[in-house]
Amino acid sequence: MLELRNVTVRRGGRVILDRVGLAVAPGEHLVLTGPSGAGKSTILKVALLFEPADEGEVLWDGRTVTAADQAAHRARFLYIGQKPLPFDGSAGQYLDLPFTFAANRARRADRAMQDRLMEAMGLDPALRSSPYGRLSGGEQQRLTIIQGLQLERSFCLLDEVTSSLDQESLEAVVRYFAQDTARTVLAVTHNRQWLDFGFAEIALESGKLRRLP
Amino acid sequence: MNETMAISIPALILFSVMLVFPVAVFRHLQLRLTRDLIVSMLRMAVQLGLVAVYLEWVFRLDMLALNVAWVLVMIVVATGSILRQSGLSWRRCLRAVLPAHLLSSLLTLAGFLLVFDPATLGSARYLVPLMGMVLGNILRSNVVALDRFFSDLRANRDMHIQYLTLGASEAEAVRPFLRSALRAAVGPQLGTVATMGIVSLPGMMTGQILGGSSPAVAIAYQIMIMIAIFTAATVSAFLAVHFARKAAFDPFGRLDESIFLRRP
């Protein structure tokens, strides 16, 4: 279970997060909403220890996470950022990328799983041989989601992952996460359609978090 | 060997009248570079004048220790210039860039020993100009490599975060940035190598021919120095970025902004 306790983040004299407390229970499906620049992405980055909190702490299962256990802590999460990232190589190589890292060498890319995920996200598995750089932003974004999903991390931190998607692929992606009850999901979004798929809403306003009924 | 015709100082001053043309271009385009031009030219004249005095002594005494000391001075000055041009903090990055230069210089010197015997290489007439050319040329590639590495890293922070959460080690997570930095730093040099002699008549060769060497001798030197420059540029750019990476991240794997003089 992930918990942020009394987290305060100040940037350039401005308080972005003001003693924020957040506990996400396993299996919960949440969307984090709020105006642009309110600090929604910052919450995800604080949870992953990529953004230092000026005060407060990040806990996992009740224990404070420190620099010493950052690698193990980050390995619990699937994190996907808001824009597709650059990559030289084919879409297939992009999907296989996590397995080239020493930490994941014990596992191998599973083609059947990749094909299944591509179909679930509305992508043609034949896309695998196309150069990643030539694909559309929406296709790259869905490949990035699939790339992370292969690692079977139990907690998804999604930062505006549907902003570059058309209506059809947006629904495919949201539906996938909605149906995946084994995973915990915390998704930052401006798009209220996530709520139609059963996600509960937390709103961030003026540095304070509020769970909406 | 024929002595090269000396250029007298009055002749040099007369020649500097040429600069009215760039000044005219600046005026015409309202570029406001005239002041910079005058300052830069004067700086060059003063620096080269001082170096000439110093080199007269280095050449006259021609002691190995003094020659090596001069090369070390060049390495330190080149390092300082790289840090300044890349906007990196001296305090944080000196220990990254200086060892990169020392190691690549040692490698270059070892390479020169395949061609020259140690006594020849150690003499001021060979050591100082050869190492001067190598160091002068690797400066640019180091600045480009460091600049590209850190600007890409700052612009694609999400990519770095994503790689780290996917399980990449710190070294694996910066590999794409290291790759593009090296490509930017040494790629254009390969282009220069490929067009050498056709598009550009290289400085060293020109100097030797003016100094009275036969073109055949001058070409052999030019080929050797191009290999030395390219090798040293690649190795030092790689090492500089590699060492700088170690200084650039905090224990959480986050880019530490205090290594930059200018904040974003």
How would you summarize what this structure contains?
Chain A has helices spanning 40-47, 70-74, 91-96, 111-120, 137-149, 167-179, 193-196; strands at residues 2-11, 14-24, 29-33, 55-60, 63-64, 77-80, 155-159, 184-188, 200-205, 208-211.
Content of β-strand of chain B: under 5%
Count of DSSP-assigned helices of chain B: 11
Largest sheet of chain B: none
Structural class of chain A: alpha/beta
Query: What is the number of helices of chain A?
Result: 7
Helix content of chain A: 25-40%
Strand line-up in the sheet with most strands of chain A: 6-7-8-3-9-10
Overall number of strands of chain A: 10
- Helix/strand structural class of chain B: mainly alpha
Let me know the CATH homologous superfamily of the largest domain in chain A. Answer: P-loop containing nucleotide triphosphate hydrolases
**SSE succession of chain B:** HHHHHHHHHHH
Any low-confidence stretches of chain A, pLDDT <50, length ≥5?
none
> What is the count of distinct domains of chain B?
2
Number of discrete domains of chain A:
2
N→C terminal distance of chain B: 57 Å
Strand content of chain A: 25-35%
Shape of chain A: globular
CATH fold-level name of the largest domain in chain A: Rossmann fold
Write the H/E string of chain A, N to C. Answer: EEEHEEHEHHHEHEHEE
Number of strands of chain B: 0
Would you tell me the overall average pLDDT of chain A? 90
